[in-house]
Amino acid sequence: MGRSFDELVDEAAAAPVEGWDFSWLAGRATEERPSWGYQRLLGGRLAQATAALDIQTGGGEVVAGAGAEHFPRTMVVTEGWPPNAARATALLHPLGAVVVAAAEDAPLPFADGAFDLVTSRHPARVDWPEIARVLAPGGTYFAQHVGGGTNVEVSEFFLGPLEPGDDREHETEAAGARAAGLQVVQCRNERLRLEFFDVGAMVWFLRKVIWTVPDFCVERYRDRLRDLHERIERQGPFVSTMSRTLFELRKPAG
């Protein structure tokens, strides 16, 4: 006999969601990963840098996982959400990185040309002119972005049909980067599969990835969550589609 709807939902609603660690979903959801292996590639890029900046770092897990042995002499990260900034500080300060609290919608608090490498994994907001400004001439932006149409199946299950948007489509983002004066070296996009095996996994995911259903809370969507629970019981996992883009951009040296 499977666990009840209330048990699954209550457990997920009480579980912590700070940082950018998804291990709570082990055995409850599966995410297909991009073929390129961003964290491994990030370690190699950091090892070649003199001064690096990781923006919107979350809890710092991705940067830490790239390997502190690869950190350049100057290693800085930014994060705007206080619980994540505190988590990143605890994780990264002992490894020699500096954590700067900076809102996503504010200018980056650094001088022009301060970094020869700027990185980010899944930034919620991308400000191409600011990225270009803080990059040194000849510097590189290396990142993995969430692409357009990611988890639209989840969003529409709870919100109903949505108007398609293209602001996160990889070609649209690449055009924005070019408009800011950056050269596109790589722009690789893959569509990937995400499966949820129980309603608790969905509750926890929506509490953490808040832009999927921006007004999500358990009580507001309890009836829809019950529909999802019954659907998974009848049909098996709820399947959604993700988009991921690998960006490598260069600021001209001249």
UniProtKB/TrEMBL annotation:
Family matches, as InterPro entries: 23S_rRNA_MeTrnsfrase_RlmA (IPR052939), Methyltransf_11 (IPR013216), SAM-dependent_MTases_sf (IPR029063)
Domain Methyltransferase type: 53-142
Keyword presence, Oxidoreductase: no
Transmembrane segments: none
GO process annotations (BP): methylation
Top-level division of the source organism's lineage: Bacteria
A Pfam match: Methyltransf_11
GO MF term list: methyltransferase activity
Keyword terms of this UniProt record: Methyltransferase, Transferase
Name of this protein: Methyltransferase domain-containing protein
